[in-house]
Amino acid sequence: MSATDDAALRAAIRDKVAAAGTSFYWAMRLLPASRREAMYAIYAFCREVDDIADEENPLAVKQAMLDDWRREIDRIYAGTGTKPLARILAADAKTFDLRREDFLAVIDGMAMDAEHDIRAPSLKDLDLYCDRVASAVGRLSVRAFGDSSAAADRVAHHLGRALQLTNILRDLAEDAERGRLYLPRELLVGVGIIATEPADVLQHPSLGAACDALADIAEKHFADARAAMAQCARRAMRPARAMGAVYHAQLVRLRARGWSRFAEPIRLSKPVKLWLALRYGLI
What we know:
Elements: H1 3-20, H2 24-28, H3 33-54, H4 59-78, H5 84-96, H6 100-115, H7 123-145, H8 150-170, H9 172-177, H10 185-190, H11 198-202, H12 207-229, H13 238-257, H14 270-281
Helix pairs in contact: 1-3, 3-5, 3-6, 3-7, 4-5, 4-6, 6-7, 7-8, 8-12, 8-13, 12-13, 13-14
């Protein structure tokens, strides 16, 4: 791939990320150009495999497409990647020491969604899911940010889980429409909810207590992530601080809105996201 082709592909990836409206966009903008471009590529990879899991295709087709990406990850680390995005990722993996097992963990997480509709998983299974679809992304991200220390991996561990649990609480209605329910079984049973059918759970009068319990777990992960960030290279953690601030603000708004209006969306405006990114990303 020529330098011109490389630049064109990176521009296309950049445009796709900007158009996606992701909360991560402003945090990514805090990075130096080369690290920012690597984050865009990581995000594009995550979106591609996530789309495979969510598409209306037979299970065998989804599994085949995810297996194709597993083989492509192997080719990336063998220096023989074939997909255009894989060739970009190969360059970034070499530059920033991105780990093969983290890419594969992301794919494994998407396979959990593809293989069956997750409904009231155990806390253990939910934690594994969060590790794969979120904390593994975090482990790739902190290396692109510029910190590959054990403390940075702890940031990825806790912040990834905090962000994913916030997503789960934010997307209750959307997930239920897909037949999914990520609220963990132990928290549901603990407040008297035995059902696992998403619509039944969301109509249960004790739903709020289960959601508050999961929000408490998310809050603990946010706090542990902040503690780990204090042990990392400060400049490298700017995007992590910004992402944590944006998502924590969403969690605060969710709790203020209450769980009886779970279908009522909460959104942070672009100016608010930008302010949070700058406020927490530049200090």
